[in-house]
Amino acid sequence: MFKKMAQPQYFCGLDLGTHTMKASIVCAKDEDNLDLLGVFETRSTGFQEASISDITELADCIQRTVQGVMQKTGIKIHAVQLGVSGSFLTTHRSSALIPLIDSGTKVISKFDLRRVDNQAKLLGVNLEEEIIHDFPQWYKVDDVNTSINPTGLIGRKIESSLLLLTANSLRVRNLTKAVHQAGFEVNSVAFGAYAASDVAVDAADKTLGCALVDIGANITSVIFFKNGIVGDVQFIPWGGNYVTQTIAERLSLTIDMAEEIKKTHAVASQTNPKELTGEILVKREKGYIPIRRESVCEAVNWEIENFLTHLETVVKGSHLYHHLNKGIVMVGGGALLPGAIERIEERINTPVRMGAATPGLNNSAVYAATIGLGRMHYLKKKQEAIGIKTPLTFKDKLVNGVKELCQEYF
């Protein structure tokens, strides 16, 4: 087994966005040596407003995306770590209280934590939902001792508080079916923005307190970290497509033309639109027509102000707002809009920066989710490999049995 683990392994992350679909392949020799081999991006088809409109089109799109990154890297893969956006997810908070022993006290074990967490999960989801992620918030022993990790403490009862991210079971099954139809297996389903935080945010910043803001096409996800754990997750119904649509509506342009103008001329600055001069030439069927820069600026600023209002409400309304000691980290395509970081920093009154760069990759904030998904795929496989136990001897079984007995009654 050790020889097999020492060989380079390849893992694929597939980020299913409603606007674009991205795939990455990473090479893993060990946890400290994860190399990005390549990424591939294509326009999403088969999606409409975060729902599957045509599963055949979606499967074809998935196949093109994964085949694209395989051709680019020369690596063949069979399974993917599937990432979904916040538009597929719902947040719940759940808690449960269980007795540890009928009488007396006992030492709390990891088995006890799993028991109380499982009870909180059962109480926190509906029948038509399945849990994508569960984040323990705290444990309380005998109503007095609150701890993040109470393993080893002595008590009679324990309470658990969880933050749950859930998704509709049928939607997950249909997404998985589309991947299978494309010819690939699904390792597991994960929240794309959470995967992005694994590569974009330093572990020390998560401990001290920070927030990750992932601006997608139609939704923005905000994840709050404190003490190294996810303490809050919020979703804002706003994304980069809102800017595109506003430009298209106000300037009577097609979506494709508006998207091109957004990429080349849109700026999220507080410049007075009337101070801007000059025109942008836009090609149409009968030639080029001029578009005033002032009009583009007005359209962009209107949407940016709308977004900042939503973001300010979410960030300042979180119970972790005063714990953002390391500020806000930005990822996602919308984060690349010039001037966006400065506007957010001014409005929220906290330091804002782009997510950590990936060596050899331009605009790595756009691909943070798919790269993080690839890394998550590796870590999950590693945990599964560690979980494979060799047969125990009679002596090992006897020692483990005595330990469990002592934990249970003493």
What does this structure look like?
The chain is an alpha+beta fold. The chain folds into three domains: 2-87 and 170-202 and 357-387, Nucleotidyltransferase, domain 5; 91-168, Dna Ligase, domain 1, CATH 3.30.1490; 234-352, ATPase, nucleotide binding domain (Nucleotidyltransferase, domain 5). The chain contains twelve helices and 20 strands. The strands form six sheets. The chain has a five-stranded mixed beta sheet with strand order 3-2-1-6-13. Strands 16-15-14-19-20 form a five-stranded mixed beta sheet, sandwiched between helices. β15 and β16 (229-236) form a beta hairpin. α7 packs across α8. The longest helix is centred in the last third of the chain and has 25 residues, at 293-317. The radius of gyration is 24 Å and the shape is globular. The chain starts with a helix and ends with a helix.
Which structural traits does this protein have?
32% strand; Nucleotidyltransferase, domain 5; 12 helices; single chain; five-stranded mixed β-sheet; Dna Ligase, domain 1; alpha+beta; disordered N terminus; 410 residues
